[in-house]
Amino acid sequence: MTIHQNLIAGEWTGATGAENINPSDTNEVVGLYASANAQDVADAIAAAKAAFPAWSRSGILERHAILRKTSDEILARKDELGALLAREEGKTLPEAIGETIRAAQIFDFFAGEALRLAGETLPSVRPNIGVEITREPLGVIGIITPWNFPIAIPAWKIAPALCYGNTIVFKPADLVPGCSWAIVDILNRAGLPKGVLNLVMGKGSVVGQAMLDSPVLAGITFTGSVGTGKRVALSSVEHGRKYQLEMGGKNPMVVLEDADLTVAVEAAANSAFFSTGQRCTASSRLIVTEGIHDKFVAALTEKLKTLNVDNAMKSGTHIGPVVDAKQLKTDTDYIEIGRQEGAKLAFGGEVVSRDTPGFYLQPTLFTEATNEMRISREEIFGPVASVIRVKDYEEALAVANDTPFGLSSGIATTSLKHATHFKRNAEAGMVMVNLPTAGVDFHVPFGGRKGSSFGPREQGKYAAEFFTTVKTAYTLA
To answer: CA-CA 20 to 30 A from 43: which of 93, 136, 200, 350?
Structure first.
């Protein structure tokens, strides 16, 4: 089997490869992918540093053309790349193809942004002096991405970094290197100069740590766990570099008694269980008022009975496998914790077998939970959700905000009053009304508050806040 190599200074390199295993069929090796060492990372950073002066001053039409060509190829290969995503991560094929299309849209958006780079011209308070305010590229950017969105998240970090003239050292999650390798290969063939984009695959303890230890990186953008995010922050403070963190979530979905029951159930099921619950925006706390609680639980339970857990590539699968054995154990450990804490297991919770060996877990619903339980406080990152009964809207809002996280928050209601109040008072970076808490557009800002995020928002025009630095220049006429 051919080894998919790292890309350093425009050259493919790496002699030994690690297996990329299909979580839907653990007998299948999706591919072999090279593992970088600390010296590889140092070489990649040096290459990015050497390439920065020329790329940072490259023409906007050149950047536009490369990003647009990348978008076009991803879109043309959406079925192929979607299948690769489904095989390596376990997301259902329709979800995987949808994520691939989103990656293409992101590159297309930033191809356009490359042609819209703008600044400001202001008069000085002093006579005969002009002031120009411009944005310039930050420098060499370290990009570290997670396994749960293996093509979309790399896209929404790489595309703006290149758009604004930065060079890159990119480390994807070692569980899902396939989609990242494909994006880098496409960009490389689209005409990126050598050293502008460098790919270093491998373990976080080796590759990620070498990136954190480097004083050369001007910025690091990271999406992943809270613990690793704190390490990124500490190392960045030590080296005086800019950093951007997207971390965990314990997102609430409030259901009021005036809600449309069908809308509420669909939003909750999608939020909590689709993509196997492996989304930082997933709703794992379903906060339901007394008047609709029993009806909601009954309807959601019936909905869960219709969801098919199976091979991600199989037609008719609603929920694919958990990503690997370690995450499956985490999920089942939390299910046992929920039982011990006194929550009632209303549905699911069992590891199941299918035609192919994989990490299959039933969607799991707890009732009679409280907001003080660990299953209501800690991010599980699996298809596990808890229903918390509350008295009224005021209590629902208080419980929704009672979390160390603040990424996404949702409400199901037909009351304009409550919807308006919730949008203003939910302590989250994103708020959804009668919609799943997961799922945002590619051209709008993404990010949260509190322990969920730190630094400028990702995506859309707001991405410029991280990937550029502002310069103010004065000229005497």
So the answer is: 136
- Residues 172, 178, 180, 183: what is their CA dihedral angle, to the nearest 10 degrees? 170
CA distance 53 to 217: 14
Identify which of 2, 434, 453, 460 has the alpha carbon closest to the alpha carbon of residue 229: 453
DSSP-derived pairing of the beta strands 242-246 and 219-223: parallel
- Residue pair 133/119 in contact (Cβ under 8 Å)? The answer is yes
Residue 11: helix, strand or coil by DSSP?
strand
Residue 402 phi, psi (nearest 5): -85, 75
- Residues 418, 396: contact at Cβ < 8 Å? no
Cα dihedral 234/235/237/239 (nearest 10): 170
Helix axes 416-425, 393-401, angle to 10 degrees: 20
Q: Which strands sit side by side in the sheet containing 344-347, from one edge to the other?
A: 344-347, 364-369, 384-390, 283-289, 251-255, 408-412, 430-433
Neighbouring C-beta atoms of residue 425, cutoff 10 Å: 13
3-state SS, residue 343: coil
Nearest-CA neighbor of 41 among 180, 209, 165?
209
* pLDDT of the chain, 477 residues: tens digit per residue: 789 999 999 999 987 889 999 999 999 999 999 999 999 999 999 999 999 999 999 999 999 999 999 999 999 999 999 999 999 999 999 999 999 999 999 999 999 999 999 999 999 999 999 999 999 999 999 999 999 999 999 999 999 999 999 999 999 999 999 999 999 999 999 999 999 999 999 999 999 999 999 999 999 999 999 999 999 999 999 999 999 999 999 999 999 999 999 999 999 999 999 999 999 999 999 999 999 999 999 999 999 999 999 999 999 999 999 999 999 999 999 999 999 999 999 999 999 999 999 999 999 999 999 999 999 999 999 999 999 999 999 999 999 999 999 999 999 999 999 999 999 999 999 999 999 999 889 999 999 999 999 999 999 999 999 999 999 999 998
Residue 200 CA, chain-centre distance (Å), reads 19
CB-neighbour burial class of residue 205 (10 A; exposed 0-12, middle 13-18, buried 19+): exposed
Name all domains of the chain by residue range, CATH numbers in brackets.
3-247+452-476 (3.40.605.10), 251-433 (3.40.309.10)
Tokens of 187: 């960009």
CA-wise closest residue to 435 among 253, 248, 250:
253
Q: DSSP secondary-structure letter at 208? A: I
**How many Å apart are CA 348 and CA 366, to the nearest integer?**
9
Q: Which residues are catalytic?
A: 246, 280
3-state secondary structure of 449: strand
